[in-house]
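Lab meeting, action items carried over

1. Structure of the two-component assembly. Owner: GW. Status: complete.
Input record:
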Amino acid sequence: MAEQPSWQDVLDLIAQLNESDYESASVQVGDVSIRLSKSDAGFDMPEAAGRVGAQPRIETGFDTPMASATQPTTGAAAAAPAAALGDTIDAPMIGVFYRRPSPGAAPFVEPGQRVEADTTIGIIEIMKLMNPIVAGKAGVITDFLVTDADPVEFGQPLATINTSA
Amino acid sequence: MTDAPVILVANRGEIAMRIIAAARRIGASPVLAASVADKDSPAARAADRVIVIGASPANQSYLKPEQVAQAAVMAGAAAVHPGYGFLSEQPALCELLEEEGIAWVGPRPETLRAVGDKGSARQVAIDAGVPVGAGVEIDDPTIVVALGDQIGYPLLIKAIHGGGGRGIRLVTNPEELVELAPQAAAEAVAAFGNGALYLERYYGRARHVEVQVFGDGEGNAWIFGDRDCSVQRRHQKLIEECPAPGLSEKRRQLLHDSSRALVKVLRYRGAGTVEFLVDTESEDVIFLEVNARIQVEHPVTEEAFGVDLVAAQLLLALGRDPQLPDVGPVPPAAVIEMRINAEDPNADFQPNSGDITRLVWPKGPGIRIDTQIEEGYRFPPFYDSLMAKLIVRAHNRDAAVAAATAAVRNVTIDGLKTTLPMHAYVLAHPDFIAGGIPTSWFGPVWEARKESLT
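Predicted assembly:
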């Protein structure tokens, strides 16, 4: 067994995951661990805390998307450094983010409210198609980082969430 | 600055860089629609703004019409340039944009439909009086022997909805046809969502010659000469040149007149390419297809005639004069383009990706490099293997071949395997130097070289 996976090994892994029914995969080779996920929302990393320092970051693009570090955008508020935010709920698609089911209605959730992974926190409209957005993880919503009817990009943090609360 | 029209660039890699340059040239503001993998790419840095449209795999970003259209709305775009590949020939994106009042840099959706399907493209060609090959559609893949006899052997089974060299099978006798037709139909269903097939006469030693057109959308055409793209491996072009060498005046005129007739019939809008098969064993010239987009190899034409086709596309889409000159059928220079791919030519052209640790380009008159790569760039595994196009212009073909040979020798790309050794070999080969090789030339020649090395 190779001590360290080559770039090609990672590619092969991606190809195999794509063709398989698995939603995510975790592979450990020597002291390198690789985690891949098909879903836009990335995936839970329950064991991540225990192995600090032994996890070289391999940019596969399947990682949970970080805040878009591009030039200033017009509509969306520039995101604060992701590290300061703790856990975030990120936009799984580009579109216009709405916090309410319809204009004038109460927001789906308010900061301070507890959500489950399947709780709807908003809607993203993409070319007139409405897509419910779920929290993706359980916890307490601490803040919304975008305001109602803001355009958002793929991967842009929408809200912060305290998952240990 | 405030009234500079925004051009959304809905592509990546070298063509994104090319479109951004053209937007700058006409005073427009380029905005890049990028996947996560490309959000910090050289093209992203070159644009005025980047909008992340989706995840890294193309089928979650660059291939999603609604995501690109959404980005165009968010960018406040006046026009969207789709580049080549991805959504460039999809009426879906074009129509979504029309609804939003955003211009599409390309032909009308009905043109995309008319030429996007090989059966209807063939009919358009027939209507325009353009020579087409003997061919017939298959109604039932289990009843094909009579159709095969009608065309004659060898023949090709082609998927009507295929493209880019996919979905094509060579058949040399009726037994093979009976066996392969149902397989091809099943594969076409799997690959293209449609099992429609047709049979066509196969020319074993034909060249691939194409004509660059630019239509004003009213039926008038600029014709910017022809290109020879016969150095191919498995239907993928490796080297292209302008003009096509050794064409008789009569043949060239037939190619150009046919292309002009197609532009007129289609009332074609913007840049396009009409592809032909030019036989080396007979006088046959056969229409292949219309590529309703800017093509990878457009720079050879630009350099040969001194025009900016991408800027012209943008100007036309913005409702302005494309500022193109009327030119003769043969350009005043000869130009050769080498596609440098992240593939190992000594390992069956297997793609590879990784960090580019050192990069040196040749310099000098007539050398153009269209690329997104730079030192330290991590060539991503998600997309096409094209890294760069090395384009070399000289006063005639012999000089262009010599200059191209020197240019290839003076490229350094460290960190991953490239197709440069293949280019050096082809450019030095007497058959290529003589000009006019058929598309079937490269495969066996490269195989023979490999065997001579072992």
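2. GW to write a short summary for the group page. Key points so far: Chain B has three domains: 6-105, 131-201, 206-453. DSSP finds 15 helices and 23 strands in chain B.
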